[in-house]
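Field notebook, page 295. I keep forgetting to write these up properly, so this time I am using the form the group agreed on. The chain and the ligand, cobalt (II) ion, are recorded exactly as supplied. Prediction of the bound pose follows.
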Amino acid sequence: MPTELPGASDEHVTHSRAVERLVTGQPTSDGAGVKLTRVLTQPLQRRLDPFLMLDAFGNDNPDDYLAGFPDHPHRGFETVTYMIAGRMRHRDSAGHEGLLENGSVQWMTAGRGVIHSEMPEQEEGVMEGFQLWLNLPARDKLCEPWYRDFAAAELPRFTTADGVEVRVIAGASHGIAGAVSRDATAPLYLDVHLPAGARFAQTLPPAHNAFLYVYRGEVAVAGTAVAEQRMAIFANAPQADGVVIEAGAAPARMLLIAGRPLNEPIAQYGPFVMNTQDEIDAALADYRDGRFAAR
Ligand code: CO
């Protein structure tokens, strides 16, 4: 798969979405004590349907990440881990194993259930990355688990005339198809690096929920500044055909994420996300009785 894709086409946005709300992530810890920032928290799940969670981790103190994420279960959704810097080993009960390194993506569809571990393979240096949770439609929540690693060099990417570098993790941008596509939720997941003063336009279907997260520098969207480590939730408006993002006097990096809402009930208990409490009870019983680890 080519890494630099020529022929990226322009995206024309005539009316940009506005920023509806700026969100500051909440410091927390998860796994066996990994410090992270929960950017998309549970109260935002309805507003940002089909996305359930976004965690940002960025630690240069090994004590904050060495304990990792030992064996734990998931059911009913997909996890997308994007490693900016660092090394993490994944193993799961479906027999998948992979090493996540600088710039790589791991896409895991938990479906009816996996037990997995995500453990650092570094004892020093910076570990930085993101984990996004993407919901599955009710009809797919008990599907077979699926897993795929994409090395940095396998991720489709392009550079715009403005010098904006874009990695297309999911969906399509400027005519370039991403590493993963999903019919029900049509996720768009871009990592966008803007030089100082650059502008980036992305078309978006008006009904899709969308947000960005700035992890370096600062950007502006329709006159609203979005500072480093802030999430901007974009308003849905019928006349808005996309979003236009501008960097200021310094370069900026951000994740741009959008998807089609499922509009189904969400019942979450920790790492299980189903539609009803009965389905959560069934997940707990299946986990307790060892029915997750079957291959
Ligand atoms: Co996990």
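OBSERVATIONS:
- The radius of gyration is 19 Å.
- The first helix runs from residue 277 to 288.
FOLLOW-UP: compare against the apo run.
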